[in-house]
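Ticket #4471: structure output looks truncated?

Reporter: J.K.
Steps to reproduce: submitted the chain below (445 residues) through the standard prediction queue, then opened the result file.
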Amino acid sequence: MTINGEDRDTTRGQVLLLAAAPVGSRRRLLDPEAAVGEFAAIPAQTLMPGWHQPVEVVPLVNPSGPQAVLARIRAAAAVPGPLLLYLCGLLVRDDRQHQVHLALADTTDTTIRYTALPWAWLARELAARRPDTTAVVLDLLADNGCLPLQPADLALPPRIARFGVVGPPARRGPWQPPAYTAALSHLLRSTPDRQHLAQLHPLAAGHAGLPPGSIVIGPRPDRSEGTVDGPRPHPATPAPATATTAPPAPPAPPIPSPAPPSAPPSAPPPTSSAAEPSASPAAEPAAEPVAEPVADSAADPRPAIAEAIRGGDHRTAADLTARWERAIVQTAGPKSPAMGDVLEVQATLAVAAGAVAQATERWLACAEHRLTWTGPGTSQVQLAVRNALHCWQRTTDEEPSLPETGRRLAELLRTTGRPRAAAAAEDRLADLNGPAYTPPTAWSR
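Returned output as attached by the reporter:
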């Protein structure tokens, strides 16, 4: 979330961390302590970049009693400054009124109406928040009885920025660490430039390894330059949240969208404004009907490419990307800054197709290309190198291109200030090639 630098309110901001799981459940639910611990370790200034006033962090781990939780939410909603609300847990539906609730510590299948927090209460308390001063981050599972989710089930006021995932019903087993929360907190801590949640959210969803049937919740892709993805003191055009269903294939990094000069080009992938009934048994609702944005594919084909990837039509996505690359080469040249965007899309296509070796090479090419136009500390370069490392670590030792991409990766990791990661990559290459292998760092001696 980003705070506008002008006319800051001199009030206190708040981060409310709410994570709960029914203590008597035998299913593999999300671990509340691990969830809150991930976010509590992030400096408040990182969660609210640009906000220089005090920030109060309030953790609520496995609370019981919806009235007590409601009082905490009500107090947080009354804070005049920016508010970040983090929710982690299990969504359940009561049998009588069929309303969606967030399960708390004492919730059972027969006591949902009395021991769980109704989602409608949360929406009601946030309704009075000023536009663009509130962000909600969700890492949730949906109970079997909660499906299918209806348009009004997870509705929040349109002025609330919303990011997160809703996973399918959990099987039996011990509690699990929240993968999306862990990925997002890692990105927030490790990204050198303080970035918007809108930029880091799709990367976190891609790195979390979401199971098939998961719902990825994010803001609309057609936000104007004047809007932000989280709290700031002054109003801006609201951007209702939307949702897409995660495909069975490994999640891909986001298709980069156009960004203002001060923001990196990697932005969230375009998402539909409403889920079709046949596309998924569960759909994240918007607070009010929203028209589908019309993309100018001649100027920027990335919305159409992202739509093709989501539909599993990789051939169409590849054709669109190839035509775009030819247009960039003819109009701007193969070494132009715009070619970096093409390389990012090519890498995303490779990830979506499960070709991790090809994705590694494309991310490396993207990082190397970006370095000819910008410094190693910029977020564009850092994110490309991080994605290259993520893909290379998943490439098998039998892949013929592994040594070459490993050498390039190690050099980029050192260039971008990650010597320990570079050493780890060199160690893997040494194990692969035997004692005769010479790390790239020795070449300059």
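Triage note (M.O.): checked the attachment and the full token line is present. The CA atoms of residues 82 and 133 lie 5 Å apart.
Status: closed, working as intended.
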